[in-house]
Structure formats: structure tokens, C-alpha cells
Amino acid sequence: MTTTEAGAALAGANATDSARAGLSNLRGQGTGQADPARVSAVVGAALEGIRAAIRDNKVTYEEFDAFKQWLIAVSDTGEWPLFLDVYLEFEVEKVAAQTQQGSVGTILGPFWLDGQAQLTTPATLPMRDDEPGTPMILAGQVTDTDGTPLRGATVDIWHTDDEGWYSGFASKPPAGNLRGVVACDDEGRFEIHTRKPAPYTIPLDGPTGQMTQAAGWSPWRPAHIHLLVAAPGHRTLTSQLFFTGDPYLGNDVASADKPELTLDPQPTGNGDEVRSDRDFVLEPGQD
């Protein structure tokens, strides 16, 4: 499946609305006020990188005009969150990870939505009566860096369905499908019943996908589960979990997959149901 059928306009518009609501600011440590010296350093370096690409590759006026048209198309389709999250966020995450403790994280991506179903463990994510795909259980425990179970921990989880659709960003799945915020028990334990997700491509009918294909790069993301693991008085962990054997591991368009984040679900003996256990460690700090 590809998200081409979902349409860049729909996915881009919803990603833009989600970005405007803002989650990145909740993960930052800054004051929110611009430092002129910092702006000059970062923006200046970015512009010099583009100028160097023009000089080194002898960019023509025809190519420069095509670039301007592409920038306008990204704006018109609302794909800036998609482009930035796919091609730049992983570098921001690497910088942040240098000063972070606890479990390994990765990028947020553009498909998080606020206001999802509030559930209590053991929980079943909202889904259709005939939801396709392999039944899956994700279970584990949330602890502090010293091993203390974290009472009040929550697991905000979202992922595609068996065909690679995200609810809220495609017309096919109903609102809230395979999304929820699960409250752990008093020992920080959680058990979440869902369906195993599928790999997918970024939207191919929009400028981000068209650029990716023009460059000959793979537009695929390996199957994965998104998570925001939180607890009072602790830094929220942004993570994704991948699956062994996925053909797109190591060739993720978003460069977000990591060996430490790979699951190997095992049969439970209940039909074709599988289960993976994964614990999370949160460092004390900003909620």
C-alpha cells in the first residue's frame, strides 16, 4: 500500500493543523524567545549550505526556477511538516539524544494527533469490528532510571492499519482508529491490544514524494508503532518500534529506524495473535 491514495492535500493539511497545535515545543528546553546571535548562526549556516550546493553543482537558472516552484508546491499542499519530519527531524533527534538518558527514542513524525481516546490498561485500541491484520499485544513497564516503577505513567500510541493508513490523515479509516492514550497501572505496567501495522510510502502525489522519486530514493517507511511515553516529573520519551524481517529496515525514508527499537513478536497460542514485551525507562526532568 502507498499513501498516494490518501492524497497529499488531505495528509498535508492535517499534518499542518497538527503541527500548528504544537508538540515540538513541549520537547524543547528553550525560552521560546529568539536570540539574534543564534538566529544568525543557524540560519546563516543553512543558507551557506544551500549556496555551497549551488556553487558545487553549478545549478542553472532552470533548476533554480524549478526549486522555487517546488517550494511553492510544498506550501500549497501543506507538506512542510511532512518534508521537515522526513528529511530533517532525525538530525534534531540525534542532537537531543546526546544529553538524554533512559530508553532510546527517535522522531515524532507528522502523524500525531491530540485528543485521542483515554484508555486504562489492559486496553484495546479503538478499531473497526472487522479490523484487518494480525492481532498483536504490546506489553511492558515504565520505570525511572533507578528502576522505580512510575505510577501515573501513560503510553500515547498510534500507528497505521494493515493497509498502511493513518486515521486522521486518510479518508479510509474512521477517526481515532488505532490511536489511544493508555494509562498504566500503579506499577507502571501496560498491556495494549491492537493490530500489527504495515509498511507504507510517504504521499507520492505531493511535492515531497515527487522529489523523493526524482532523486531515486526509496519513499518507504518500515512498519512501526509510534509512542509517547510519559510520567509526572519525567521527560516524555518519543519513540517508534519496528519489526524484525521488515524489508525496509535500514532504508527508512525518515532515517528513524534503529536496531535498539526492533521488536520480534512471538505467537501467543491464541490463533494468529502475537506479542512483544518492551519496557521503557524515563529520566527525571521536564514533564
Automatic annotation (TrEMBL):
Q: Name one GO molecular function term.
A: ferric iron binding
Q: Which SUPFAM superfamilies match?
A: Aromatic compound dioxygenase (SSF49482)
> Superkingdom, according to UniProt?
Bacteria
InterPro entries, alphabetized: 1_2-CTD_multi_dom, Catechol_dOase_N, Intradiol_dOase_C, Intradiol_dOase_core, Intradiol_RC_Dioxygenase
Intradiol ring-cleavage dioxygenases domain residues: 138-166
Do the record's keywords include Iron? yes
Instruction: Report what the protein is called.
Output: Catechol 1,2-dioxygenase
Species in which this protein is naturally found: Actinomycetospora succinea
